[in-house]
């Protein structure tokens, strides 16, 4: 994994692109609500992060996430996808 593909960098890039904002704004936000992320956008964000990092995020755990730090922690502990 290259330095620019760390979980935090990927998350902030994906959220910034999806929410049409800057990475700096995403880094400053604490809650998902503050960024205006709804359930559909969350699905799109998670799918993009999973693809870029090659991980699989647990849907049940995702429902309990309410902040960027919680989402990042979930991403960091998510297992790699099995090779096809």
From TrEMBL:
Carrier domain ranges (all copies): 5-82
Keyword 4Fe-4S: no
Pfam families found in the cross-reference section: PP-binding (PF00550)
Record-linked InterPro entries: ACP-like_sf (IPR036736), PP-bd_ACP (IPR009081), Ppantetheine_attach_site (IPR006162)
Record's keyword terms, sorted: Phosphopantetheine, Phosphoprotein
Gene3D superfamilies per the UniProt record, alphabetical: ACP-like
PROSITE patterns associated with the record: CARRIER, PHOSPHOPANTETHEINE
Protein biosynthesis as UniProt keyword: no
Protein name: Acyl carrier protein
């Amino acid at each position: 994994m290259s330095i620019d593909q760390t979980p935090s960098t990927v998350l902030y890039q994906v959220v910034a692109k999806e929410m049409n904002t800057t990475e700096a704004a995403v880094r400053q936000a604490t809650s998902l609500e503050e960024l205006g992320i709804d359930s559909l956008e969350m699905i799109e964000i998670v799918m993009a992060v999973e693809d870029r990092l090659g991980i699989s995020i647990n849907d049940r755990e995702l429902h309990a996430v309410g902040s960027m730090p919680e989402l990042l922690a979930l991403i960091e502990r998510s297992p790699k996808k099995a090779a096809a």
